[in-house]
Amino acid sequence: MDSLSDNALMLRVKAGDVDRMGLLFERYHRPLFGFLYHMLGRADASEDLVQNVFYRMLKYRHTFTGDGEFRTWIYHLARNVLADYVKKTATPPTTPTWPTWPTTSVAAAAPTRAWKRTRK
Question: Which domain of life does this protein belong to (predicted)?
Fold first, then answer.
């Protein structure tokens, strides 16, 4: 059974043989983790997102046609899971802080005669 192609396994999963998903998980959980970890830099979130990818694989198995490569399809799911995660966890932009100016009076801040440039 391990000799079946990824496309053939996914077509079986699509047909209702969800036990075959275990083989796809064995083949792809590490590469997907590496992809997600490279993008996020957080191991805990990457592991959770790998689980979400396989959940979506099961949820959207009816969209797999078998015409293209399974690898392309699952990485497309992974990219979408990652985009959703980033949107969900993104912090809203903060208001820029402007520099504060000294609160001295204008007269005190005026240059003295020594600083003024004299015309000749």
Answer: Bacteria
